[in-house]
Task: structure prediction
Amino acid sequence: MSIKHSIPAALAIAAFALPAHAGKTLDAVKARGQLVCGVNTSGPGFSNADSQGRWTGLDVDFCRAVAAAVLNDASKVKFVPLNSQQRFSSLQAGEIDVLSRNSTWTLTRDASLGVVFAGINYFDGQGFMVPKKLKIDSAKKMNGATVCVQAGTTSEKNVADYFGANGMKYKPVVFDTAEAITSAFFAGRCQVYTTDMSDLAGARTKAPNADDYVILPQVISKEPLGPSVRRGDDEWFQIVRWTLFAMIEAEENGLTQANVDEQKTSNKDPGVQRFLGVSEDTGKLLGLDAAWAYRVVKQVGNYGESFERNLGPKTPVALPRGVNNLWTKGGLMYAPPLR
Amino acid sequence: MLAILLARNVAANLEARQIKSGFDFLSDPAGFNIGELLFDYTSRDSYLRAFAIGMSNTLRVAIAGVVLASVLGVGIGLLRLSHHPLVSGLCAAYVEIFRNIPLLIQLLAIYLLITELLPGSNDAWSVEGVALLSKEGLQIAVPEPGRLALLCALAAFVVGALLGRHAAHRWLEVGIGLVALASGAVAALGAWLIVGAAGGWSRPVLDGFLISGGASLTPEFLALWLGLALFTSASIAEIVRAGALAVPAGQWDAALALGMTRPQAIAGAIFPQALRLAIPPLASQYMNLIKNSSLAVVVGYPDLVSIGNTSINQNGQALEVIVIIMAAYLSLNLVVAAVMNAVNARVTRAPR
Result:
């Protein structure tokens, strides 16, 4: 499947494209009046389309935040669902402006794919899901298991490293879509399904009976997930990176979708006034206007709101905030100051 | 000229976009594991070795697919000539069903059937010590591997082929060749089983959820193999039927006048002549089967394309990997074309 898309994309950039120009993405997005954002085909909590075709999720919210900052309107986003094998080719070829598709930031990807990661919007790690009836309570007891894994993910390599390091053998069965894996796993073809913990939690919601499956506590890798952009356009890179920081900073300052209008006039904190573009214009340094960060909060919300809405305890995925809490609350979410 | 220009532009653009290029990565460790191995491989081996594994898996399913599709196709094609309405009707239904449903759908359906219907490995259907059938696939007992058994099998093949040739010496040349091949294969299999068994059997054993020993066919292989064979056999059946109907009616009359029964006439006179007409379109079907095997990834079988997909995402070198895949399929099909052309040349030279 994927190769059908990645071949034309790869050939197109390779053979016909002119050398890349810096600083052109912002102009192109404005001229088009629409942000084209690459998202996951099906990742409950991150990017998922409902029966009416409405997209929701943490990664989807981030696309909307960039559109709010750049185009003044969070709804001006065209979502392009991509599987794990298409995503980087699609970004390289210029088919999308931003890739916001729970992708792990690694050295190889950052340094050799012609893409650059703009930050981390979810700190994840790879884990294992097994049927309860097998009574496996530790990842160390999986010797000889058949393991379902998705093609083109960091998981494929991590699982080889983990089993190798622990002197265990396994038989991988590799599928190219998450849907194919979940149907094979729930049918019992594999004893183990391995991917990022957040994906496992999402997949478990699709089981015929979620209580028949258990996610093991072991986390075998670091999977910092975040948005990425094409190399060679530093202006666009800064906009995407600082949109993410703005969402985190807003949570730290207690600015929410509901109170941001009131805070704009009542809150005299210089940091907040600068953030909302009341006192200083931080936007012009990014090629945007003064109210860019205000719009992100007003139209999409802060990082914590987006998390609660898509992944929090009231959602089917029900992930704990954990390390994704603010640094002030014992987590890892930290934004450099907006000044 | 155009190719050179294109290649230079490619290199310049990849450079400008800071995308790594070149074939150096082939000697780097691949880092991922592969589910089905015909020879040793671990995640520390190179990408080149991973591609070799992928190619061997492609060849394995292609060869098995060509053999099964040919046997089924010839059988169904000839049975369709039967005067019995039930037999010819069933064969016609077989052809129309498997020829007219897209291969992709057939593969998914077969895979779904296997994974949904078969029991888990801990309560596998088994013939004690001989075979196990479960979601882990089909495991069968085989003789312990040994050089003696292989040598005996080879010798038996030669003897069997000569005997077959002698028995069929009054047939047309194509018929003699096929009979010799078939009897050789049967003799070789028999010799391997008998001699190998003397050295002991490797039997499938269930331990927890682990099955070890014996030879195994995974559900992924079974689904792809059956899917390819059924789909292609429907087209082969039609080619064989067309070939048989194209043999002049006088040949039928002559064969029957010599006192042959209808089945004898088909086997000894009609089929060998039909095959002559059938070989060029048959070659196309074989090549289609090989190319269609690239659908492996939808059922999780680690063929060349599947390994290529994984590699692309580990190192991002899409262009290089796609070139490797294209070159592999091209050379494989050129070999098939050369072999089939040689067979065709030999067959058409045979006297009428």
